[in-house]
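Re: your question about Branched-chain-amino-acid aminotransferase

S., sorry for the slow reply, the queue was backed up all week. Below is exactly what I fed in.
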Amino acid sequence: MIIQRASCFRRALLTSLEKVGPRYFTAPAQTSAQSSTYRDYELRDIFDWDNLGFKLIQTDYMFMTRSSQNGNFEKGKLNPYGNIELSPSAGVLNYGQGLIEGTKAYRVDDGRIFLFRPQESGIRMQIGAKRMCMPYPSIQQFVDAVKLTTIANKRWIPPAGKGSLYIRPLLIGNGPILGIAPAPEYTFIVYACPVGNYLWNGTQPLTLYVEEEHHRATQGGAGGVKAITNYAPVIKAIQKAKERGYSDVLYLDSVNKKYIEEVSASNIFLVKGKNISTPVASGTILEGVTRKSIIDIAHDLEYQVEERLIEADELFSADEVFCTGTALGVAPVGSITYKNKRINYKVSSDLISEQLNSRLVAIQKGIIEDKRGWIIEIK
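Result:
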């Protein structure tokens, strides 16, 4: 019975979207209140929201559109979540011409659904696309696709306080190409997945290891954009660190090998007194949306924030260290091991990182006023 109802729901949703015609890309269609309420109720009853973790869970729909010959993207549509077909000579498979993004949707206590700064992810995708010689959707197209994907997978958004819907936009060169050159065609995809805590050990503080052999990015490379090619090279270092009991890896710059840059998929901050420092994003560091948000919030709370070169030796004198990222949120660091020396940091409820995180979460959930237009309500 559940399978039959799911099939009917998918057909009804797609039919309703098709009836809207050209409008449905920029003005996502609503499903009937009765269907939406029923589907939400069904998942609340049968899904274990308390043990989500951060793993792939297949949802109902994904958005897809392709670029035309002039580089513009078609209006696109929702498809049932599933595999995509690629030529073995696709640019993304042969030369890594691809970008990823990430943003989240939250369900708040009164049932409303908020997106957090999806336009910033759209801007970052455009910056990355220019670096990778790829056409890209407009900011409005990007945000509308994220909205549409969120609405179509609304029943997968965890109840308030149980997690969020992680939304993953992809831009890939799917066109076939033999020589090293831009692919002749591109696909923009958005899919979603309910997630809980990013860390395998729940809410425990991070334990980091400073990697001195392998580097995440080099000057002149693509470390400052969210290219898919930035992530596979760090897997070896992460595996080595986790085998030794660490949460993740903190990388040094590849030239001087003494300045900290970022963790595998998150930015890092050091606290000394009332001063907060984070490595300057100079081309090798990804400017995270959460990073930018925390810097603004820290200024609001009258902390001094510096974006600068930070020597690894400063880790020994820091009062507090924390990391930020879309998937991670704001996470305190309990210890960092550098040159075989373990540096322990205080972990308590009065940390500056906890104060910043509380303000960020309150904005994301609509508890305090959003004065910067970071929140988009999904209706």
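Residues 1-38 have pLDDT under 50 and may be disordered. The chain has eight helices and 17 strands.

Happy to talk it through on Thursday.
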